[in-house]
Specification:
484 residues, alpha+beta, six-stranded antiparallel β-sheet, five-stranded antiparallel β-sheet, 15 strands
Length: 484
């Protein structure tokens, strides 16, 4: 085939390639986007499930950490023995300030039977009215108590400032073991020295906030800290900031064997019960179950948003890729021509670079030869050279100083040169520097320098200034040759 026909055939193929290839890329990307959208929908559901799992584990860890902190704070509150109402009030107020979602706190203390009258008298003095140990009853709180070896009584109690008038009947002098909801868990706390939690209950005599429970934290064999808590309020404060309206969050007491939850978070929409996640946590001696229910809107919103974003990204990428490919094909022909010119220019530059490298090597060798020659001339002259700044500080001194004065060059660098000039020659040294500064010519002087052992060495000093067109005199260059 003639060369002209071959060139025409190549030009025709290039013209057909220009619109065809970008269109093919556009179709391929659209098909790939459709496949990715379907895959992303499945992955979105999987990632949403993983997110729920992570949040579920985070809720369980947050509960355990906060419950441990609550118990530790109660123990710190009663770490030092409390013997007065003022001491208890200060410690209790600090404790309630640290945990504002609690209802109140009591200190339950074992009182020997022999000290009953004495303790009753102290309680009466603290309250300002006669008070005896009393039992808990639903309708009245004043039945006499028979004599015992010891009593577990509420010694002091403090409620939140907005709950002090709750009328719960839980106050100093109450026999703690007479409260039905407390008896078993309080005895277990003292006997086993472990944290116990009562079930959720309602104190019929005007209980604190209706439904509440108690956490008993043993301090020793005699003292127990009782913490009053409304679970819905405490758990709401613990988890409220982390809630999503598309997720329902519940807490149940597994030991209570009922379906009434301790806490339920608000949620929008119907929950997907079959995708619920559950974790069991310990609240003292009881076991609570934390359950997370996702709503249908959570999965629908996550998938719809992911698919929409993927289609938008795919369409944008398809248009951008097709446009870029078309521009690339157009630019390719232009840059092929530019490449040939660049290759020619690069060849010329490579030749020039090689020539410059040869010249650089020659200059470097000449510089090294000049340096060797200068050092040899200084050594043959039998003296030394030095450079001073305009203040007379030594910036450079040749190695021959060790032969002339017997000192190493490092002792004189950054030091005044006049430190090695004999006292009787200082005036001559300074006048020579001044004369060199004025005349800008080589000045000569005969003077004495001090060797390492401070012996005077007669030398001939030659000085020439180092000048700068802008700053004038910037220093001096010296040569020192010993005199016979």
């Amino acid at each position: 085939m003639p060369r002209a026909l071959q060139q025409g055939s190549r030009s025709l193929r290039r013209l057909l390639l220009l619109p065809g290839l970008p269109l093919l890329v556009l179709v391929v990307i659209v098909i790939a986007t459709a496949w990715l959208a379907q895959t992303a929908s499945t992955e979105g559901r999987s990632l949403t499930t993983q997110l729920l799992t992570t949040r579920q584990l985070g809720h369980a860890a947050r509960f355990e950490a906060q419950f441990s902190l609550l118990v530790e704070s109660a123990r710190r509150m009663a770490a030092s023995r409390i013997d007065t109402p003022m001491q208890f009030r200060q410690q209790a107020n600090a404790f309630l300030s640290q945990h504002p979602d609690l209802l109140g706190v009591e200190l339950i203390r074992r009182v020997p039977g022999s000290q009953r009258l004495q303790v009753e008298q102290r309680i009466s003095e603290e309250l300002g009215q006669p008070m005896q140990f009393r039992q808990w009853q639903q309708l009245m709180t004043g039945s006499p108590i028979e004599a015992r070896d010891d009593y577990l009584v509420v010694r002091w109690s403090t409620a939140r400032s907005d709950m002090e008038d709750s009328g719960s009947g839980i106050g100093p002098g109450l026999l703690a073991t007479s409260v039905p909801q407390w008896r078993r868990d309080l005895e277990n706390a003292l006997v086993q020295q472990m944290v116990t939690t009562t079930p959720l209950s309602t104190v019929e005599s005007g209980g604190v906030n209706g439904h509440s429970l108690r956490i008993f934290v043993p301090i020793n064999r005699e003292d127990v800290v009782s913490i009053a808590m409304a679970p819905s309020h405490w758990l709401g404060g613990l988890f409220g900031a982390y809630q999503d309206p598309r997720i329902r969050f519940t807490v149940h007491d597994l030991n209570q064997h009922n379906k009434i939850p301790l806490y339920v978070s608000p949620a929008e929409g119907a929950v997907v019960a079959e995708r619920a996640l559950r974790s069991e946590v310990a609240a003292g001696n009881r076991h609570w179950m934390i359950t997370t229910f996702p709503t249908r809107e959570l999965y629908q919103q996550a998938n719809a948003r992911t698919v929409r974003q993927l289609w938008l990204a795919g369409a944008g990428f398809a248009v951008a890729a097709s446009s870029l490919l078309a521009m690339t094909l157009l630019a390719r022909r232009f840059y092929q021509r530019r490449l040939a010119l660049s290759n020619d220019q690069q060849a010329r530059l490579d030749t020039r670079r090689k020539n410059l490298e040869v010249e650089k090597s020659i200059l470097r060798q000449a510089l090294e030869d000049s340096g060797h020659r200068t050092r040899d001339l200084i050594a043959l002259a039998g003296g030394l050279i030095a450079e001073l700044d305009e203040k007379g500080q030594t910036g450079f001194v040749s190695e021959q100083i060790s032969e002339v004065l017997g000192i190493p060059p490092s002792l004189l660098v950054d030091q005044p040169f006049e430190a090695r000039v004999a006292p009787d020659s200082l005036e001559s040294f300074h006048s020579t520097l001044a004369a060199a500064r004025e005349s800008r010519a080589v000045e000569r002087a005969d003077l004495n320098l001090l060797s390492e052992d401070n012996h005077c060495l007669p030398v001939t000093l030659r000085v020439k200034t180092v000048t700068d067109p802008v700053h004038g005199c910037t220093g001096f260059r010296l040569s020192v040759i010993p005199r016979q």
